[in-house]
Design a protein that fits this description.
By secondary structure, this protein is α+β, with helices and mostly antiparallel strands. The chain contains 13 helices and 9 strands. It is globular, with a radius of gyration of 19 Å.
């Protein structure tokens, strides 16, 4: 009992310090382009902004989709055995992060573009930690397991995830789906249920209030997934290929979970020669 009380006090203290720090940092947030201000407004009100690689027009890596399509062939080949065993292996497979960073470094670098970092920082309210990027192949196995279940991301109080579709994704193909933040939903609404399937969610929020994000290849979803209940819709008729970028504050609520996303320690010496001071801080200062 005493240990539970202490753990709760520690969590409350960490949360209080986090939000005080966030409040005091408001005047230091980087300026934004008009389009990026719209992104932040949507994330603050809805939890999610839907755009595209073409609209974002990230100058540092203008050919991200082309490079990612090359990597997709490697991903499909590397995960073919998992597809054969998908009934037992969950809902997705990912390209090995070391392969991704060594063979396609531009994909990793896209997530460090100054505009992307400015968006992440304004959304989080604090200097961002760049957790890295995953290249994910979601299976069409019609099972609501893993990330197909409704959840909040647990790395931090505010988590920014940027999802880039690399194939056309319809409502039956694993589209990202979320509950708008205006519903003020929390885990308390589910009375201790951790694995929130569609049936549990529908008892709390009617399905006609859920917001799905289908889109063509090149669609980009920017979301505060630490504050917005979300999931990938169950894939019925097609697989989904997507890049998933992640950001938290530099004092994340669950540091060990945050560090699992990308093995950047293996590349510290190499990246130190390539990245700016700000980029290096985003990758390493919080680890």
């Amino acid at each position: 009992m005493l240990n539970r009380v202490r753990a709760k006090l520690d969590r409350d203290l960490h949360s209080t310090k986090y939000y005080i720090h966030r409040l005091s940092n408001r005047s230091y947030l980087p300026p934004l382009f008009p389009l990026d201000r719209e992104i932040i407004r949507d994330i603050q009100t809805k939890g999610v902004h839907l755009t595209s690689l073409e609209k974002l027009d990230i100058a540092s890596v203008p050919d991200l989709e082309q490079i990612a399509n090359q990597a997709a062939h490697r991903l499909v080949f590397a995960t073919s055995a998992q597809v054969d065993q998908k009934e037992a292996s969950g809902c997705f497979a990912e390209l090995d992060p070391i392969d991704l960073m060594t063979q396609y470094p531009e994909i990793f670098r896209w997530g460090l573009d100054p505009r992307i970092l400015n968006i992440a920082e304004n959304c989080i309210g604090l200097p961002p930690a760049y957790l890295g990027v995953s290249f994910r192949r979601s299976f069409a196995n019609q099972r609501q397991v893993g990330t197909h279940l409704w959840h909040l991301d647990a790395e931090d109080y505010h988590v920014v995830r940027i999802i880039v579709y690399l194939n056309n994704v319809d409502l039956a193909g694993g589209a990202f789906e979320y509950i708008p933040r205006s519903h003020r939903l929390s885990y308390r609404s589910f009375k201790g249920i951790d694995s929130i399937a569609d049936q549990q969610m529908q008892r709390v929020i009617p399905a006609d209030k859920w917001k799905a994000c289908p889109g063509k290849a090149g669609t980009v979803i920017i979301a505060n997934t630490g504050q917005t209940f979300h999931h990938g819709k169950v894939s019925v008729n097609q697989e989904r290929l997507a890049l998933i970028y992640a950001y938290t504050s530099r004092q994340p609520k669950d540091l060990e979970l945050a560090k699992t996303h990308c093995p950047t320690e293996k590349f510290r010496e190499c990246l130190a020669e390539q990245l700016s001071e700000r980029e290096l801080s985003c990758v390493y200062d919080w680890r």
